[in-house]
Amino acid sequence: MSEQHTYRVIVRGTWDGLTDEARVRLLAEAADHGMASMRFTEEGSLSYEPAPLKHFSMRYVVVSDAADGEEMAGAIAEDRAEGTLRDLGYGFRDLKSTVTDLDTMKINRKPASRR
Predict the structure, then answer these.
(1) What tens digit of pLDDT does each residue of 102-112 get?
(2) Is the Cα torsion angle 2, 40, 96, 94 positive or negative in sign?
(3) What are phi and psi of 113, to 5 degrees?
(4) Is 0.85 topped by the overall pTM?
């Protein structure tokens, strides 16, 4: 059995070819997709600024084989983002991901004397 790692992935992109209906819906739901909505989940959480309605990000938790590495985790998250955005009827382009492997991340702890 291969070792599993947990990754946090931020997928960023640009809105593209939004229909008038999609634009109206995004603007109406903007308050639900601001700073407070930024959390990492398996389903992904969408966040964007309404003005200008240009860029967005989606945050994912991806669990996959450690041997497949960060590149595969990014590809999985981008695939999930594409599916979600298409299902919602939102046009997009230029997806790019940033991946953090939580299992190899170094945590800097303050010495007891500094607490």
Answers:
(1) 988 777 677 76
(2) positive
(3) -65, -20
(4) yes
**Residue among 78, 85, 88, 91 at smallest CA distance from 16:** 91
Counting runs of H as helices and runs of E as strands, what totals does the chain give? 2, 4
Could you give the CA distance from residue 9 to residue 72 in angstroms, rounded to a whole number?
Answer: 11
Q: Report how far residue 55's alpha carbon sits from residue 47's, in angstroms, rounded to the nearest whole number.
A: 9
Tokens (6 digits) for 5: 């790692």
Structure token digits, residue 38: 């930024």
Mean pLDDT over residues 91-96, rounded?
97
Q: How far apart are CA 53 and CA 27, in angstroms?
A: 8
Residue 31's Cβ-side half-sphere holds a number of Cα atoms within 13 Å equal to: 1
Contact between 48 and 27 (Cβ < 8 Å)? no
Q: Are 107 and 23 in contact (CB under 8 A)?
A: no
Give pLDDT tens digits for 7-26: 999 999 999 999 999 999 99
